[in-house]
Each structure stands twice: as C-alpha cells, then as structure tokens.
Amino acid sequence: MSEVIIPDQTKISPAPTVAWTPLGENAILIMSVCDAMPGKVPIAVDGNPRNKAETMALTWRRPQAEAAAAVGFLCLAPAPATDRAGSGALLLGRPGRPLRLVLSPKPMPLQSFLAALAEEAGQAFPTVVDGLLEILLASKPNPRRLRAAAMLLQSIAKPGGFVEVMGPLDDGVFIQGWTSNFSAGRTKLLIAHSGLSFAVLEAGTFERDDLGDGARGFFGLLEECEIRHPSEIERLFFRANDGWRALDVYERHVLLEPITVPGHLRDGLQRGSAPQATTDKLRRASQRFDGRDTVALLDAPVRAGIDDATIVESSGTLIIGWLFDPDRHVSAVTLRSGTQSCVIDRLWTRVSRPDVASAFAEDPRFSHMLGARRNSHGFIVFAPKLTPEPGQPLYLEFEIEGSGPAFLPLEAGRGQPRRTLERIFGLLDPKSSTAATVVERQIAPALQAAEIAPPRVIETFDLGAFTADAPLGLVIGLDHRQRELSSLFALLAIDPEVRPVPIVLAIPGESFDRIGAEARRLARFYGLAVRLALVEGVEDACDAMEAGARACRFQTIAMLSGAAQIRMPGWLGRLERAFKARGGQCVASPTLLFEDNSIRWAGAWMEGEGASRRVFNRFVGYPLEAIGNLGPMEVAAGATECCVLSRAAFIEAGGFARNYFTTAEKGLDLCLKLRMNGAPSIWVPEVEIYVVDDGEMARPHLVSLAQLADRASFDRRWSLAVSNMRG
What we know:
This protein is α+β, with helices and mostly antiparallel strands. It is 25% helix and 34% strand.
C-alpha cells in the first residue's frame, strides 16, 4: 500500500457518529461502516492531523448495504483527551478521501459493545474476533485489555470439554480431561486466571467408553505459561475448526501431588497416542522422580545406597553414601529438590568402601565384574546452598547411558553445622590422603558456608557489687568440659590487682546448674564481684567469651579462656599497662605455657613472601628459657586464650568467627581482623599463663583433621590479605 498523507487542512463535512468503548487508559475500540477500508491506516485524534497513530482495521462485507456502507470495520484508536477539549473526531487516512468519524457522547459498556459487534458482523464475527484477540494480546497487555479479551472469549467461546485432573510439575502443569474439538499434538491455548495469558499444550488422546461420539480423553502438559500452580487456572480457551472453544475446570477436579504426576503421564502414554515429537516430550517428563527407588530396578549393573544425609542448617546438604558402577554406566549424579539442583559427581570425593565390594562379591549377578578394580565405591559430598523447602522431596538422579534417569529418594535429617561435620572425622583415617581431600573439598567449604547463629546470653545473675560499665573488667569463658573453679577463684582473690575488678563468668546453659552453684559459693566466700551469664549456643570457650563480652559494658576487657590457668599474681596489671602504652589500640597477650613449662605460644609471626606467606608460632615446644628477657613487642597476631583489648574494638570486628572447629584459628582470625582495623597485637613475654591441652574434639586422635580443616578455611579467607601484610 502506498503511503497515505493526512492533509493539514481537511474540509469539514458531515460525519457519522460511531459507537466506542474504552480499553485501558490510552486506547478505545470503535466500530463503523464505510465504502472501503485497508488493513492498516493512519488515524488522527481529535481532528488534529499532527496527533496521529497507526491502527489495524478488521473488516467484513455487508451484502445488503448500500455501496457507501458496504464494509463494516472495527479498529483500535488512541483515547481522546479526558476532558474532551478536542473535537471528539477521528480522521482515518485511507487512500483517496480521508474518513472522518465523530465519537458518540458516551462510551458503550464493553459487553454491550461486543453484543452489537456480534449482531453487526454476523457470520464474520468469529473471524473478526480472532483478529481482535490478536490485536488485544499482541501489544503490551494492560488490565483492561486483558479483561476485554477475557470477556470477548467468555462471550463467544462454545463448550469444548472439561479438565478433570491437574497437577504441578517443575516447568509446567499436567492436565487430563476430555474434548471433541482438538487433536493430539501441540495446541496453542489461552489461560484465564487472574489475567489472561498464552500457553502451549502438548497432549495425547485416548479412548473413553463413557463419552459420546467424537469425544476423547486427553492428557498432557501445559508449557510456556505464566501460572505456577494448577489452582490458578479458571478456564482454558482454544481455537477449534468451528471457532473458539472453552475447557472448563470440573468442579470436583482431582489435584495431584507433584510427585505423582510422572506416574499419570506414564499411564497416559501406555493407553493413548500422540505425534512422535509430543510423545518424546511427554515421555521425558514421565521419567521424573515419583518417590520410588528406581536404581534398584535397573537392568544395568548399577546400584547405590545412602549411609547418611543431613541438611546442614542455612548451609547445604551433606551426603555420605556409595555407588556401585563397575562398568561406568552412570554419566552424571544430581541432587534435586523442587527446582533446586546440584551436580554432585563434579564435587564429591570418592572413598574406599571394601564393605560394598564384599557385599557384591556374594551376588552372582555382579561378582564377575569386580576383578581387581579399586574399592573406591564410597563418596562424601557437600552440596552448598541446597536445602529443600518444606514438602519438597530430596532425591538423587542418576543419568544412566542408554536408559535415561534413575532415582534414589533421600531421608535427610537436620543438624547443626559443626557437630554434623565433626561426625565425618570419625569415618576417616587421619593418615590417608583421602582424608585430607575430604577435609579440604567437603568439610572446610561446608563449615565456611554455614550461617551459624552467635551465642546468646539468656539470663544473668549479679553477685557482690558488680559494675557493668567499669573501665576494666575480666571476662572468663567456659566450655562444656569439667573445669575446676576453686583454684581459679582463689588465685583471682589473692591478686590485689584483680580482686576489685568486676568479673563476668560466661557458662554454657547445659552446665549452668552445676557450675553456677559452685561459682556462687566461691564468689561469696572470696567477696568477688561476679556476673554469672547463662549462654545458649556455646560450642567452645571462644563462644562463651564473646557472649560474656556482650553481657557487660566494660571499656577494656581482659579475656580468659576456661582452659587457661593463672601462674603468677600481677598478670592483669602488666597486660593492662602494655595495652595502655599503645593508647588502648592493641591486643596485649602473655606467653602461654604447656603444663611442663615448655612454650605453647610466644607471639605469632609472618614467614615467607607473596602467596607462600603465612602466620606461624615460632617458639612452640621450646623451653621457657629460650625467649630470654624480652620486652613487649608487636607480633602478627595475639593469643585470645588470655588477652587485654578494647571491648568496642572487639564488638566492631564482629567478635570471633564461628566457621572453625578449633579455638586456635578463631583467635588468629579475630586478631587479624583487629589488626586490619588498626589494633595490632602486642606480646608481653614477662607474663606467663598456663593453658591446658584443650582436647576440643570428642576423639583427640582426630584433632589433626580438625586443624587441617581450619587451616584450609583460614587460608581461603585470609591468604590474600596475609600475602600483603607487613611484619
């Protein structure tokens, strides 16, 4: 069509008044007649040729009408000004003479407008409706246009059957029912829900004895749809050979659980038929997890089992299990729950499981496949961030070459990160290379990813003249192990520099009754000012010390672990003086000794350059005499088993990190954070404190694995910063 120009000056002539109805804020729908109308025309609004747009016209023949009104047409137009300050006229720039129309003073309600259109268009009404729907749904939808399209469909769609069964699937919706108006295969639909949107139905059909002639049952998947749950569906519309049809949702429809949908698809495929492309798509969907262990049903020599599956709170899922696959039929293993997934065979660590090999050696179906192959049938894996939502099943999907997926459901418990991960240490040989790999690839990342809640003070009890906002106070943190308090309180009481200092004693809630009673008796006997803090969530002494620091308002705090034992009077005063000598901007720590007077800690130092740079304790195991008569000096990091520091600096640094197994790395991590914030560590050699062997792990011979995990976690967090530190 050649371009049509609307002239700037158009002779005003009598114009017909046309019916119209609003569609949204910016458009109206008009209906009129003329002698001829092209499919696409420019239209000027309010008689202003400079305020124009382009519109699609839907036309039909009017056989009995005069030549000047031989064509009926329907089109969208820009809405006139709300105040109707314009002329209320529309100018359509068709070839030849432009067509001028005047809008009726009042719009028609949409339903009345559609009724008038049906009467006017007659047999052409279905075709006009198709075109109008295409126009209404093609542009960016707005609520009124969607309502118009929905009302139009409700008005003209004939009954087309019922949807009797529905069920959600990960990326679609299963539906089943009956109809006589569409064939198996791919059908484009419109879904009426809170709005109106397109979808595609991939469906098969099957015979039903309870239906009349021409009607058949159907089953399939709704895809490419906006809805996420079948309960949103109000009605389905589709274009049949004789016009638009509607599938109503049966009032007593069955709503399936997601896990049962694959079974219904398999049943439909067995009794129905569909084009090959649709059959393939439905078959893939039917092979999804339905709650059964299908690995055990495989003809291929593949079997699997789970020893333990634990959801690590706010972190991920830890799985310990085995996979017997001597001929390597499994190409991928994926952990799934709802829409979440993690390909675990890219992450897992394989471990030796001679028990699995022995079990299958007794099975004649598999014994000939074992040969001299390794026994690495076991695996340990941490799937980060995959924690199933309530009601969603957790399962493993095994991709088997040549036979599609097989599934293994998991019954997962829930556990706290540190205790859950510590259990794995008991399954490992600390001397094996596999143990080191499991620690570095599974345990350390899992603990670092965990969001562990900080310890919380539940209740406090003050004894004596306790002052919560004193300039200096002592915070003592106890863990779950049995501690002897009588000697500690006696040494505190006979030290004139400690006796007047208020003391916070942080005690785990589990042992508060026993320890709290002893602490009350000793505090009263020695006349000490003590605040007993009952703490929830204590894993170690660091947790207790942090809770104690937050249970007071001391300006300066002296922290003392329950594992520490005072060796001499005057220790607190000397540490405080070293602290004040640096303007209160440091961490002052003493020399720590083993019980045989050998050195446990005498300053942490930097060693190496670049990526090889690390923090180490230089004098560990040396006799005390090895350090001579050194004076206070700055070191890379202090020792938090006993130290003096600013409470405000401690709080600002976030306290102790919780993503370590042992207190050593927790303390090192804290001191480096303080150093980065401008509070370096000072070693005061003349002050000596005993620290008894912690025995933090339930099994002492596994401490090396815990230390390895902590070192891997520390390096992941700090290696770059340490490589650029001075000193």
